[in-house]
C-alpha cells in the first residue's frame, strides 16, 4: 500500500521548512572567506610532528589518567600497565600535548610544538640511600610490544626519523630521567625505529680509546653533535654528568654513572663519526 501523502501534508511541510532553516543556520555558522582547497595543491609539505618522545608516568594507572586528563600536563597516548595493556588517546595528534616542557634537541627547542608524546604507566624508581635513583620498575613484555607497535605506526604515518625518536631524558637531561634505563631502546632499534651504533664501529673506536679516554671537552662536543644541549666549557660539572648519564642510560644501561669512559666515548664516536686522536707524545 502506498502512503497517503496528502494526509501527512502539514507535517511534510513543517519538515521542509525545518530543513531550510537548518541549512541557513549552518551556512551562517560557517561564515568566513570562501576557500578553494582543491584546484591547486602544493607538493612541498610534511607533518608537523617531527619528534616522538617517550615517557614513563612514575605513578599508577588511575593517578596517571587523572593527572594527564585533568591537570596542566598531557600526552597524546597513554599505554597502560594492565594485563593485557591498552592504549588511550588523550590528545589528538594535530593538537599540542603538554608533555615535553622546557626541552631541546639538535637545535630545536620547546618540543611540545612539533612532537608526539607517549606516556607509559610505570612507577619509575625509588631513591637509594645515597639519594640516587635505584630499583627501576621493569616494563612488561606485553607493554613493550604494544609500545613498539604504537611507535612503528606513528613513525610511519608522520615519517619521523630514527634520530628523532627520543626519551624525555634526551631532551631535558637536567630535569628528567624517564623512560629510564630499563626502557628497551635496543628493541626499537632492532625495528629500525631508533638510531643505534654499529657494533663493529664501537669495537674499533673502543680500541682507539683503550689507552686514553678523551678529555671532557671532546665529550661535550660529541654529545652536542649527537643532539644534546650541553655547555662546551671542558669541565665535568653536574649538568655535564647528567647529560653523560642520559646518553649512557640509553646506549649503555648497565652503567649510567655519568662518568666519561672509553666505552661511552666509543659509542659516541660510532654514532657521531667524531673521533678523538690523542696527541703524539
Ligand atoms: Zn616525561
Please give a structural write-up.
The protein has 281 residues and is of the alpha/beta class. It folds into two domains: 51-190, Lysozyme-like, CATH 3.40.80.10; 199-272, PGBD-like superfamily/PGBD (Muramoyl-pentapeptide Carboxypeptidase, domain 1). The protein has helices spanning 9-29, 61-70, 141-158, 168-171, 185-190, 199-208, 216-226, 238-251, 262-272; strands at residues 51-56, 77-79, 87-89, 104-105, 108-109, 115-120, 126-127, 133-134, 165-167. The strands form three sheets. The protein has a five-stranded mixed sheet. A two-stranded antiparallel ribbon has the order 4-5. The protein has a two-stranded antiparallel ribbon with strand order 7-8. The N and C termini lie far apart (107 Å). Mean pLDDT is 91; it is low at 1-8. The protein binds zinc ion (ZN).
Number of strands: 9
Number of distinct helices = 9
- N- to C-terminal distance: 107 Å
CATH architecture of the largest domain: 3-Layer(aba) Sandwich
Mean pLDDT over the full residue set: 91
Helix and strand string, N-terminal first?
A: HEHEEEEEEEHEHHHHHH
Low-pLDDT regions:
1-8
> How many domains, in number, for the residues?
2
Shape category:
globular
CA-atom Rg in angstroms: 26 Å
- The CATH class of the largest domain: Alpha Beta
Any key phrases for this structure?
alpha/beta; disordered N terminus; globular; Lysozyme-like; 10% strand; Muramoyl-pentapeptide Carboxypeptidase, domain 1; two-stranded antiparallel sheet; five-stranded mixed sheet; 9 helices
Amino acid at each position: 500500500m502506498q502512503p497517503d501523502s496528502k494526509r501527512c501534508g502539514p507535517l511534510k511541510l513543517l519538515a521542509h521548512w525545518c530543513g531550510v532553516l537548518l541549512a541557513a543556520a549552518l551556512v551562517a555558522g560557517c561564515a568566513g572567506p570562501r576557500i578553494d582547497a582543491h584546484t591547486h595543491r602544493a607538493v612541498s609539505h610534511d607533518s608537523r610532528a617531527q619528534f616522538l618522545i617517550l615517557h614513563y608516568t612514575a605513578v599508577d594507572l588511575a593517578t596517571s589518567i587523572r593527572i594527564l586528563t585533568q591537570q596542566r600536563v598531557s600526552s597524546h597516548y597513554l599505554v597502560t600497565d594492565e594485563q593485557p595493556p591498552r592504549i588511550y588517546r588523550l590528545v589528538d595528534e594535530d593538537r599540542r600535548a603538554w608533555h615535553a616542557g622546557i626541552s631541546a634537541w639538535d637545535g630545536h627547542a620547546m618540543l611540545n610544538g612539533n612532537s608526539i608524546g607517549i606516556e607509559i604507566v610505570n612507577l619509575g624508581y625509588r631513591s637509594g640511600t645515597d639519594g640516587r635513583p635505584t630499583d627501576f620498575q621493569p616494563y612488561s613484555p606485553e607493554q613493550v610490544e604494544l609500545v613498539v607497535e604504537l611507535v612503528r605506526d606513528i613513525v610511519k604515518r608522520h615519517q619521523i626519523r630514527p634520530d628523532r625518536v627520543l626519551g624525555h631524558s634526551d631532551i631535558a637531561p637536567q630535569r628528567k630521567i624517564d623512560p629510564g634505563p630499563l626502557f628497551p631502546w635496543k628493541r626499537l632499534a632492532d625495528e629500525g625505529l631508533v638510531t643505534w651504533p654499529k657494533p663493529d664501529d664501537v669495537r674499533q673506536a673502543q680500541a682507539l680509546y683503550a689507552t686514553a679516554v678523551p678529555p671532557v671537552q671532546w665529550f661535550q662536543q660529541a654529545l652536542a653533535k649527537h643532539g644534546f644541549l650541553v655547555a662546551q666549557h671542558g669541565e665535568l660539572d653536574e649538568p655535564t654528568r647528567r647529560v653523560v648519564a642520559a646518553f649512557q642510560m640509553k646506549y649503555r644501561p648497565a652503567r649510567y654513572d655519568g662518568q666519561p669512559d672509553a666505552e661511552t666515548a666509543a659509542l659516541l664516536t660510532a654514532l657521531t663519526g667524531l673521533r678523538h686522536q690523542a696527541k703524539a707524545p
